[in-house]
Each structure stands twice: as structure tokens, then as C-alpha cells.
Task: inverse folding
């Protein structure tokens, strides 16, 4: 009888030991190289190794993952770029890891027309979207003397830019420059926002204060596995992640995936600065404070926001996954 009881207990323990916590994670755009580390963590079993069964949901223009996070349909979301707004509004959502140490937004200009750096863009037409106008545009305008009279409508296609050599437009480091080079057959002048002094993090993982309070171990396991995925994706074989990305988003070409990964490595988008000593995903109080102060100075944020409500470094800065860098 005792033997049977022990066998039953061992069986229950074995099943529970192998049961995995289900996690749903929302991206802020469709599957592409800029999310390669997460897909690598799925493909190479980093999540599974930590007892997690992770479902990654693509974002897109018709998807509001922040609403889904608030409704409890997502456990984690790439919505941390709004972390300071959450704190200002008293919303219980917190940034817990900054995967991109540099904002990959860019301004793109034609070569050979004198638009070679940020100061040279003063007075020239620049196509930007409404969100940009109320965000990093204000930082650039204050620093380089731009005016709103320069703003032109951003149509989310390259036709106006290609038709007008004097037009500058916003873009994304791993996207528009590649399309211009491959389709228009010339290399544009690409100005990375971080090179212009913008200090915001990007690709920031957010979760609810409730999850942090109730399931801190789950949050830690998710972050640790994600960081391992990013090291593996950047410094190992990216093929496993690329296969999932292309299956998820058939419009994504292998050439664009290769370009996106290479450009992130070349520009230190993921691994640079603080990550060199603290690991991918690093965040610091000083960096958050610097960014907040710079944006409050140009009216993007109100003064007096309690930054401690916007983010926590509890789950990062532990050098997790650095052994995979080679």
C-alpha cells in the first residue's frame, strides 16, 4: 500500500514538474527580425526550459495589444514606450526590460543634396506621422531648431520620397532603407534618432503590476528566457527564429530578415552601452531620468511624474545569457 501511495505521489510530482505555465506575449508590429530574439527563445526551447509555454501574438495597424493587456488577454506586451504615460495616468502597468538600447527610428534623406546630418535638416521638408509629431519630433525640433512648418504628411509609402530629392521622411532602420536600396537602387542617407541625442529605450517589455505582485517568478523566467533568445539570435544561428517568423508572416523575405538582424548588430541597437556590463535588456535609473527630463523640457511629459511607477529594474541587469555571446 505504501509503495502504491509513493508511486502515486511521484506520478503527480512528475506531471506537475513537466506542466508549463501558459504565457501570451503581444508584439507591437508584425513578425520581423526586430522580434527575432523572442522567436528564437521559442524555437530553441529557452522558454520551455524555464517551464513556460509562450504564445507570441503579432501586432499591426489594426491591433491594440495595450487594450488586450489591460483586459487580461495578454501577460506581457511590447508597450513599454508608454511607460511614463502609464505612470502619469496612474495605470498599473510597468516596463520590466528594455531590449533596444537605441530607438531604431530614423530620418531618411537622399544622398548628395546636403542632408547629411541632423543640423543640415533645418528648414527642409520632413514627412512624419501624427504620433511622431507629438513625440520625438519635439526633441529634435528643440535641439536642432526645426519648426512645424517643415512637417509634411507621412503617407506610409516611399513614393513621395522617391519623387522629391529634397524631401526627408521618417522610417525604421531595418525597413525603409532596405526597400530603397533594393527597389530604387540607391543608398539613402540614414540618420538614426539615437545618433541625434535621443535617449529613449525601445522594444520595451511591459506587464501589469498585478502579475509582478502575484507571479514574480513567472515574470523572471519570461525575461530570462527572452534574453537568452536575444543572445542566441544575434550571436548564434538565427535560422530557427527566421523559420517561425516567415511561417508567421509570409510577406517577410529572407533578405529583409538578414538585413534587419545585421543592421541591429552593426548599430548596437540591442547590445551596446549598459548591456555590455549588465546584459541585454538593461535599464538604469539614470537613463530613465535623463530621457524623462529631456522630453519634459519640450512638453511631451508633464513635470513631477513619479518615475518609480513607470519601470522596475528588478528583472534585468543580471547578465543573463551573456555566456551565449561569442
Result:
Amino acid at each position: 500500500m505504501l509503495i502504491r501511495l509513493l508511486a502515486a505521489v511521484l506520478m503527480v510530482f512528475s506531471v506537475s514538474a513537466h506542466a508549463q505555465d501558459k504565457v501570451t506575449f503581444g508584439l507591437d508590429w508584425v513578425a520581423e527580425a526586430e522580434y527575432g530574439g523572442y522567436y528564437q527563445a521559442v524555437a530553441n526551447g529557452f522558454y520551455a526550459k524555464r517551464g513556460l509555454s509562450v504564445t507570441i501574438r503579432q501586432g499591426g495597424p489594426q491591433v491594440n495589444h495595450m487594450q488586450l493587456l489591460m483586459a487580461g488577454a495578454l501577460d506581457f506586451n511590447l508597450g513599454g514606450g508608454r511607460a511614463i504615460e502609464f505612470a502619469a495616468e496612474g495605470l498599473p502597468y510597468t516596463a520590466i526590460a528594455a531590449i533596444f538600447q537605441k530607438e531604431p527610428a530614423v530620418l531618411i534623406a537622399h544622398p548628395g543634396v546636403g542632408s547629411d546630418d541632423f543640423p543640415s535638416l533645418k528648414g527642409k521638408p520632413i514627412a512624419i506621422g501624427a504620433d511622431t509629431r507629438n513625440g520625438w519630433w519635439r526633441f529634435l525640433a528643440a535641439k536642432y531648431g526645426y519648426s512645424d512648418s517643415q512637417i509634411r504628411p507621412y503617407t506610409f509609402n516611399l513614393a513621395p520620397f522617391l519623387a522629391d530629392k529634397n524631401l526627408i521622411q521618417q522610417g525604421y532602420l531595418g525597413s525603409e532603407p532596405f526597400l530603397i536600396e533594393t527597389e530604387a537602387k540607391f543608398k539613402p542617407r540614414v540618420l538614426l534618432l539615437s545618433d541625434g541625442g535621443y535617449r529613449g529605450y525601445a522594444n520595451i517589455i511591459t506587464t501589469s503590476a498585478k502579475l509582478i505582485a502575484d507571479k514574480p517568478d513567472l515574470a523572471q523566467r519570461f525575461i530570462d528566457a527572452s534574453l537568452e533568445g536575444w543572445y542566441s539570435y544575434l550571436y548564434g544561428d538565427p535560422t530557427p527564429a527566421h523559420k517561425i517568423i516567415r511561417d508567421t508572416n509570409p510577406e517577410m523575405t529572407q533578405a529583409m530578415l538578414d538585413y534587419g538582424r545585421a543592421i541591429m548588430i552593426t548599430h548596437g541597437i540591442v547590445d551596446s552601452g549598459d548591456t555590455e556590463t549588465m546584459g541585454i535588456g538593461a535599464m538604469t535609473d539614470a537613463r530613465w531620468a535623463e530621457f524623462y527630463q529631456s522630453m519634459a523640457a519640450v512638453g511631451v511629459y508633464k513635470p513631477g511624474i513619479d518615475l518609480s511607477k513607470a519601470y522596475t529594474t528588478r528583472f534585468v541587469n543580471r547578465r543573463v545569457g551573456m555566456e551565449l555571446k561569442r
User: Anything to note?
Assistant: The beta strands are 21-26, 52-57, 76-77, 93-100, 105-109, 126-128, 151-153, 168-172, 189-192, 202-208. The first strand starts at residue 21 and ends at 26. The CA atoms of residues 43 and 240 lie 6 Å apart. The first helix runs from residue 2 to 18.
